[in-house]
């Protein structure tokens, strides 16, 4: 009887410790992270083709083309592993490299506006559409990752699962942040000039 009571007490304690919930949420974070990486890789794979098409029409825009190529090289040089989501410094480097890539691609697309023949090129249009779709997929994947991390971090920090998390050395995971938080906190200044 005493053994049965001990077994039942142990089972009740273990069921409320949250270990399984932590494991399930950690797996959800890893799955969401894999999708983020998948979409960023898709974008990186489109870049060389896009740069080559633009080179043919805007070869004197070397600064912009070099910027995009360098940003892609930086993204490609990162050691991206599933453990990256457990290392805040590595996660910040990853996020900075991806932000640099986004910025360089934006400048490239702005430059393309100056070349009507480039905009009319079928390959450029197709690549632009694929890039736009990929950017949308990146946004969706990042949102899913953010939600998975929020759920995991809430569990890690909530009582009584925080005790289990400490026992197994499970820590909060880093999340995406806004790169230019100060800049977006100010309202944009719009000046239409004076009409005549």
Q: Stretches where pLDDT falls below 50 for ≥5 residues?
A: none
| Helical content (DSSP H or I, runs of 4+) | over 70%
Please report which band the strand proportion falls in: under 5%, 5-15%, 15-25%, 25-35%, 35-45% or over 45%. Answer: under 5%
Global structural class? mainly alpha
Radius of gyration in whole Å, from Cα?
24 Å
Distance between the termini: 96 Å
> How can the largest sheet be summarized?
none
Number of helices: 8
CATH superfamily: LemA-like domain
Output the CATH class name: Mainly Alpha
**Overall residue-averaged pLDDT value:** 85
Net shape: elongated
The beta-strand count equals 0
Say what the CATH topology is: de novo design (two linked rop proteins)
**CATH architectural arrangement:** Up-down Bundle
Q: In sequence order, what are the helices and strands, one letter per element? A: HHHHHHHH
Family: Belongs to the LemA family.
Pfam families: LemA (PF04011)
Membrane topology: Single-pass membrane protein
Protein name: LemA family protein
């Amino acid at each position: 009887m005493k053994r049965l009571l001990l077994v039942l007490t142990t089972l009740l304690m273990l069921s409320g410790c949250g270990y399984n919930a932590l494991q399930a949420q950690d797996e959800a974070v890893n799955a969401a992270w894999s999708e983020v990486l998948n979409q960023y890789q898709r974008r990186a794979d489109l870049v060389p083709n896009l740069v080559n098409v633009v080179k043919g029409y805007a070869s004197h825009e070397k600064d912009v083309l070099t910027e995009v190529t360098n940003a892609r090289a930086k993204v490609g040089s990162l050691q991206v592993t599933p453990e990256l989501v457990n290392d805040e410094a590595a996660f910040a480097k990853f996020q900075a490299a991806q932000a640099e890539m986004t910025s360089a691609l934006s400048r490239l697309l702005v430059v393309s506006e100056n070349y009507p023949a480039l905009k009319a090129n079928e390959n450029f249009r197709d690549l632009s559409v694929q890039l736009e779709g990929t950017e949308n997929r990146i946004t969706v994947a990042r949102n899913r990752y953010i939600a998975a991390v929020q759920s995991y971090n809430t569990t890690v920090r909530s009582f009584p699962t925080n005790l289990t998390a400490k026992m197994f050395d499970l820590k909060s995971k880093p999340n995406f942040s806004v790169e230019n938080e100060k800049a977006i906190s100010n309202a944009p200044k719009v000046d239409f000039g004076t009409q005549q």
